Amino acid sequence: MPALRDNSIFCISCLLSIVLILSSNQVVDAQVIITPGIDDEPEPEPEPIQQPNSGAAKVFQELDYVHFIPLTNSPGNQIKLMLDYSVVDPSFIGQPMSGSMEVYATHNNSLIRTSSLSVPILANQSGTLQFATTFIDDDLENARAETVLTDSNGMTPISNRISANLTLGQIVER
Q1: Average pLDDT over residues 58-75
Q2: Which of 2, 73, 93, 128 is 20 to 30 A from 16, comparing alpha carbons?
């Protein structure tokens, strides 16, 4: 279809040129050869349609520290995750954001706990966030913690997802 459009434009241009020449009271013999489907230059590829971004590109997060250790001052085992974030989209600075940490049992991949920020925070250019949860279940020895930052409602992801596989007693520092 694009070749047909180009040929139509070319034909109209030729006709206008002929009309202009004839209206200038000059007699000119002209022969125009039109070869359908042959273009001197290939048409540019159309731009890909950009799908609306869910917001994942607004903030980048990376793991700073994570542990899965027995608590010494109370019963239970704690998973604590510290992450550093930086705002990728400057227009997002000062906007409220939230986040959550999901903990899965690695032996059956079942979700066993979700923790989230108690209130949304305002995004700075960069910062550090902490997520923590405690398990009284002494049988849980392996877990996977995943975090994602979200919009202030906690519904739409605005960052990359971080995942850490942990064994009881493990401490991981960047």
Answers
A1: 94
A2: 2
